[in-house]
């Protein structure tokens, strides 16, 4: 699903970026361009990122 329409960034791309080490919205913005135009996607992009980071941390702890 598209999270950032302005830059055509999907939730899958955000999760892949997190797998490569991104942990903040700023890092997503630098790598993918998320929330650099209108900014309406910032909250959703950050939520996808944080949920994926949290899930990855749980898998690593198990």
Write the layout of secondary structure elements.
Layout: E1 2-4, E2 9-10, H1 11-19, H2 25-32, H3 42-61
Antiparallel strand pairs: 1-2
Task: Write structural notes for this entry.
- By secondary structure, the chain is mainly α.
- It has a single domain, classed as Orthogonal Bundle (Arc Repressor Mutant, subunit A).
- 60% of the residues lie in helices and 8% in strands.
- Strand 1 (2-4) and strand 2 form a beta hairpin.
- Helix 1 (11-19) packs across helix 3 (42-61).
- The longest helix has 20 residues, at 42-61.
- The model has no long low-confidence stretch (mean pLDDT 96).
As a whole number of angstroms, the C-alpha radius of gyration is 11 Å
Q: Overall 3D geometry?
A: elongated
The helix-strand sequence is: EEHHH
What can be said about the biggest beta sheet?
2 strands, antiparallel
How are strands sequenced across the largest beta sheet? 1-2
**Strand portion:** 5-15%
Please give the count of helices. Answer: 3
| Mean pLDDT rating | 96
Structural class: mainly alpha
Low-confidence stretches: none
The CATH class = Mainly Alpha
Q: How many strands? A: 2
Features:
62 residues; Arc Repressor Mutant, subunit A; 2 strands; elongated; mainly alpha
What can be said about this structure in brief?
This protein has helices at 11-19, 25-32, 42-61, and strands spanning 2-4, 9-10. The chain is mostly helical.
């Amino acid at each position: 699903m598209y999270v950032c329409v302005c830059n055509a960034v999907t939730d899958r791309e955000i999760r892949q970026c997190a797998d490569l080490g991104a942990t903040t919205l700023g890092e997503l913005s630098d790598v993918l361009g998320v929330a650099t135009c209108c900014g309406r996607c910032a909250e959703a992009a950050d939520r996808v990122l944080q949920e994926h980071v949290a899930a990855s941390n749980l898998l690593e702890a198990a």
